[in-house]
Input
Amino acid sequence: MRRFVDALFALFVLFGGTAQGQVGPQPGGQCPGQTVHAHASGSTSIVQAALPSPGAGLRNYLCGWDVSAAGTAGFVGPITIVNTQTSNITVQNTTPLTVANGGISISREYGTCIPAVSLNQAMTVSTTADATATAVDVDVHGCAY
Output
């Protein structure tokens, strides 16, 4: 019986199943559910993009994000990701906006997409910008299934 179970598991993994330890969609692979993308823009204060609540019985998976900004001086950040399964994530930006550097862009792609804390839960990526920012954009992408 043990050999049968091992063989069945091997076939499951071989033909597209998820092996233990892997959660959610993998990079470069297809999303097994609905692909989700959100964008938000602003110039100062909080700019937030959200993967919307996917619906009853579905879970969001955050696969990556990008924050870009232009301005004359100051900083954009921190970047905060809310409603992940383990805890909120905060990324600090140490690159100031200046005319000389033409702005900044900070991106993250996750090797294994990060699941939402619960089913039917929105996930947000937000940042703050000081008064010297002229344009701030937040893009987020993931899956819901």
Remarks:
- The chain has one domain: 24-144.
- Residues 24-144 form a domain with the Jelly Rolls fold (CATH 2.60.120).
